[in-house]
Structures are given as C-alpha cells and as structure tokens.
Specification:
Elements: H1 3-28, H2 36-63, H3 101-121
C-alpha cells in the first residue's frame, strides 16, 4: 500500500464530496425562492439514499466478478461485495492495488452520488 496514493485518494474523495453541496446550491439558484429548500434537500437526500444503496448492492453489481447474466459476459457483477462484505482496508488485487479497497469504494460512491444528484434534481 502506498501512503502517497492513499493520501491523494482521500483528498480527491473529499473534494468530490464538497462538490455535492455546491451542486445543491447551484440547483437552488435555478429555481424560485419558495422551492430553494426543497431543491437543496433533494441533493442531500440523494446522497444519503445513494450511499445506502451503494453499500448494500451497488458496489457489488458495479465491481463484483462477472455474473454472466443472461449469457452476456461483463453485464453485471455478482454479489461478492453485498453490504461491503469483502471490502476492507487491504488493497484489491484487481482495482487500485496501492490503496485500501474501502477507499476505492468510497471514491466511486462519491461519483455515483454526484451523477445521481444531477439526474434527480435536474
């Protein structure tokens, strides 16, 4: 595990997380005054919901080993990581071999939440 890579990924994950309130304020500026709070809350609730879904099944379906669903390889991952079961502080042998696997999952979560916020509130 490389401490420099880990520090950079922690910083990058934090920066993406800071973008979410900025996105909420941006969307708040696009609506009428009476709808600002509702629009901002959509962004924050979107982050909360996506975080729970990501931990329970999303990460597993996105980054699990190939489930070969309907005979189509590479379509969806299996359920090896449901509930972050095999995700820990040890680096993955496949994804990001120099940082903790849970940090890789958190980094991917931030982009899933950011992307979903754009869909939900826009």
């Amino acid at each position: 595990m490389d401490s420099g890579d880990t520090a950079w990924m922690l910083a990058a994950t934090a920066l993406v997380m800071i973008m979410l309130p900025g996105l909420a304020l941006f969307y708040g500026g696009l609506v009428r005054r009476k709808n600002v709070l509702s629009t901002i809350m959509h962004s924050f609730f979107g982050l909360a919901i996506v975080s729970v879904v990501w931990v329970l099944v999303g990460f597993s379906l996105a980054f699990g080993k190939d489930a070969n669903l309907f005979g189509i390889p590479g379509l969806v991952g299996n359920l090896d990581y449901v509930g972050f079961f095999n995700v820990g502080l040890e680096p993955s042998t496949v994804y990001a071999v120099t940082i903790p696997f849970v940090l890789f999952a958190a980094f991917q979560l931030m982009f899933a939440a950011k992307r979903t916020n754009g869909i939900v509130t826009a």
